[in-house]
Design goal:
9 helices, 6 strands, single chain, about 15% strand, alpha+beta
């Protein structure tokens, strides 16, 4: 009876040790790259080529299989993260996708993006988090300095026009505020809005909380300007602190972006 169990366990060990997956790197359009793992590379390549693969390869069409190698199944996810991290540091964060970093949109300087990218690279390459975070932030600022993240309002609306339209539409004392004596005039409203914009644009927006009253190094805010709580620790994938990346099943991150 003992020989039976020993034989079965030995057979299980042999099966596990010989089980492999294919780690592959795709060269994509726009000088981009995609890193993935699969049990059937031919099928997976066809999915990418037909627009049924990753979101990244739907935006940046796959051109060819740049490289491939077999890796043990139990370490395939880690190997994918290592290659993705190394290629991001070599080619640029927004030129590579793979592992848990799968957004089709560019990563930017918002806190959740910096934390997600830095966390993945730190864990994969076993580096110091603080140093990796600074490197990631500098890289993101260099890649898209004109697209520094501040707040959803600033990205979507003209602040002068928004404030002017709000005040000009108010009824003060039952009378429209538009050009009426004794009420806030249109010119006064525009001046107020313009002064607000000038004052807020004089100081670079904090890339951590989105406010313009201080810089990132001076920031102690616990909430973002949009009202979202800034988490100190938590899941590197979705930004929530109720779990870790290993137990994350979220479909969207804290900003509502699809993962």
């Amino acid at each position: 009876m003992s020989n039976f169990y020993e034989t079965r366990s030995a057979r299980a060990r042999r099966t596990t040790s010989t089980s492999t997956m294919t780690l592959y790197v795709l060269k994509c359009a726009d000088s981009c790259w995609y890193v993935g793992i699969t049990g059937n590379l031919k099928t997976r390549w066809n999915q990418h080529a037909e627009g049924r693969g990753a979101e990244w390869t739907k935006v940046h069409a796959p051109l060819s299989i740049h490289s491939q190698r077999e890796v043990p199944s139990e370490s395939a996810t880690h190997e994918e993260a290592v290659v993705t991290s190394e290629m991001m540091l070599k080619y640029g964060i927004n030129k590579v996708r793979g592992a848990s970093l799968t957004y089709s949109r560019p990563y930017d300087t918002r806190e959740s993006d910096v934390r997600r990218v830095a966390g993945c690279i730190r864990k994969a390459l076993d580096l110091n988090y603080t140093e990796v975070r600074e490197t990631v932030l500098e890289e993101l600022e260099r890649e898209a300095p004109a697209k520094r993240y501040t707040s959803p309002v600033n990205e979507s609306f003209d602040e002068v026009g928004l404030l002017a339209s709000v005040f000009n539409g108010f009824n003060i004392g039952g009378t429209s505020a538009k050009g009426v004596s004794g009420s806030r005039s249109t010119a006064g409203t525009n001046n107020y809005a313009r002064n607000m914009t000038t004052r807020s644009s004089a100081v670079p927006a904090c890339t951590r909380c989105g406010r313009s009253s201080h810089t990132r190094g001076q920031c102690y805010a616990s909430t973002h300007i949009s009202g979202r709580k800034i988490w100190g620790t938590g899941c590197e994938k979705c930004g929530r602190n109720s779990h870790t990346v290993a137990t994350c099943y979220a479909k969207t991150d804290l900003d509502g972006n699809r993962i």
